[in-house]
Amino acid sequence: MSRRNKWVLALMFLLGIAIFTYSLRDIKFSVLVSDFVHINFWWFGVAILCMVMYLGLEAWIVKVFISDRIQGFTFKDAIRIPMVEQLFNGITPFSSGGQPAQLIALMQTGVDAGKASSVLLMKFVVYQSMIVINFLFALVIGFNQIQDKLHALVWLVVFGFSIHLAVIVGLLMVMFWHAFTKKAVAVILKPVRWFIKAERFDRMEANINEKIDSFYAESVRISGQWKLMLRVFVITFFQLLFYYLIPYFIMLALGYTTANIVMVTCLHILIVMVISLFPIPGGSGGAEYSFEMIFKSYISSNSKLVLAMILWRLLTYYLGMLAGLVAMVVRPDKVVEEPNSGNE
């Protein structure tokens, strides 16, 4: 990690402490401690297991994609990728640092940069597709109940969905209308030339075109492997399901045993959609506010609501960053690629 990243990481932990402290301003510390001591730690353990499964299934997806092309890629190397991703997603605005960090982590194992980029792009496509599908599922299942709880957040949810959908549409255009997409991107980039130097613009344009070509080549290669893609889609579905279930098990741990598992899961899907819009790394501030606003009708006790938010945030955000720090110090195994290895 660079010195700048270390400073940002420290800042995000300090910001988290500040947000938790502010949330507890009207709650007696003794009441919070009492609520925590009396939680059902078995259910809380299930919530922790859900986060572990989320990371483990993403590692499995990485291994499925890499092993399709390269022999000798271990699960130890695979598990490092989502852990590193969690760390750099957590310290960069809009989670923009996750993809480059995963690329570097894969290259550290000896995977060629081009192949690693292609794998990460395909993984990203599947992940984004499942997010959009899950969001639509959440709306169909519980729209009537959800609209009463969203209030001012409804437009943020719609906007977040629009962005995710636009990303998927753009990626599908690259996959199926490659030439047209490159022309469209060239037209969109023209105004950018007015604001930056010609050399920098040329490098940026060349880099974008290279990524488009790389993604298109990978999509053509993998288009005939429908069994592989179906397998990855199924794994990703369960990966996200474990993640979305975390608030439900936290509520069970706090004694809210009558919580509707489908409705709570749908609400968490919407929270994740809202968080993606906040420019502060990890959606800090917006994530906590969204959770409290949406779940306050389910959790009547103010102290338990704040405790649920803190536990949820610790599991879904800070635990991932701590895991990423561990992954950074673990030496990866090395794969040695033969000149004609893989299924290219």
Query: Distance between termini?
Result: 33 Å
Helix content: over 70%
**Major sheet, described briefly?**
none
Beta-strand residue percentage: under 5%
Write down the domain tally. Answer: 1
| Rg over alpha carbons | 21 Å
The geometry reads as: globular
Unreliable residue stretches: 340-344
Number of helices: 14
What sequence of helices (H) and strands (E) makes up the elements? HHHHHHHHHHHHHH
The total of beta strands comes to 0
Structural category is mainly alpha
Mean pLDDT figure? 86
Description:
- Belongs to the LPG synthase family.
- InterPro entries: L-PG_synthase/AglD (IPR022791).
- Keywords: Antibiotic resistance, Cell membrane, Lipid metabolism, Membrane, Transferase, Transmembrane, Transmembrane helix.
- The protein is 76% helix and 0% strand.
- It is mostly helical and 344 residues long.
- It has one domain (36-329).
- Helix 3 (41-67) runs antiparallel to helix 11 (246-253).
Summary keywords:
single chain, 76% helix, EC 2.3.2.3, antibiotic resistance
Write the layout of secondary structure elements.
Elements: H1 3-23, H2 29-37, H3 41-67, H4 75-90, H5 98-108, H6 113-150, H7 154-176, H8 178-189, H9 198-222, H10 226-244, H11 246-253, H12 261-275, H13 286-295, H14 302-329
Helix pairs in contact: 3-4, 3-6, 3-10, 3-11, 4-5, 4-14, 5-6, 6-7, 6-9, 6-10, 6-12, 7-8, 7-12, 8-9, 11-14, 12-13, 13-14
